[in-house]
Amino acid sequence: MKGIAVYPGTFDPITNGHLDIIVRSCEIFDHVIVAVAQNIRKSPLFSVDERIEMLKEVTKNIPGVEIDTFDGLAINYVFSRNAEVIVRGLRAVSDFEYELQMALMNRKLAEQIKTVFMMPSAEYSFLSSSIVKEIVRLGRSVECFVPPFVEEQLQKKIMPQ
Ligand code: ADP
Domain Cytidyltransferase-like spans what residues (predicted)? Predict the structure, then answer.
């Protein structure tokens, strides 16, 4: 398949699960825009600039990826970038209800834009940005769950020396 896909999310911070979805998306679409939501409702740990910096660093060797940010409705951003597809990741059943609601609402708002769901490798299907932050707060390493650059930023932010 060709075309432009947008993968929107909070990415606070990016995990190996998000990365798995980005790599899979790049095998299907020509251009994948990873779009950081300026989602203040979630009170992110990292600023938008910090989240962008981490995303840029860990995707720098993946061709076809662009990192950007948006405010407001994801569907408006998707339109503004002339994309046809929204990519979302689906983990365990717990993601399903929320993702179904979002996908159906987005379809109502813009029929021509399709939502594509991808499942990560089984080893990442229990992984979330929140659990990674919790593990670091409790003093353990998250090196199996995030790229090394992200682990460093987490340690600096949560456990400053
Ligand atoms: P949001 O606030 O939009 O849910 P997230 O950064 O938490 O932002 O997630 C962005 C997208 O990535 C969502 O579709 C989410 O289901 C998916 N995602 C999050 N963690 C994983 C993971 N470990 N494996 C696959 N998809 C994931």
Answer: 6-134
89 in a labelled binding site:
yes
- In Å, the largest CA–CA distance within the chain is 51
Rounded CA-CA distance 67/32 in Å is: 9
Residue minimizing CA distance to atom 10 of ligand 1: 9
Is 51 flagged in the annotation as binding?
A: no
Residues 4-125: name the CATH superfamily. HUPs (3.40.50.620)
Every domain of the chain and the residues it spans: 4-125
pLDDT tens digits, one per residue of 86-134:
999 999 888 999 999 999 999 999 999 999 999 999 999 999 999 999 9
pLDDT in tens, 34-93: 999 997 777 899 999 999 999 999 999 999 999 999 999 999 999 999 999 999 999 988
For the Cβ of 74 lying below 6 angstroms from any atom of ligand 1, the answer is no
| Residues designated as active site | 18, 42, 91, 129
C-beta of residue 27 within 8 angstroms of C-beta of residue 48: no
Tell me: is residue 77 an annotated ligand-binding position: no
Contact 126, 23 (CB under 8 A): no
Binding site membership of 35 for ligand 1 (Cβ less than 6 Å): no
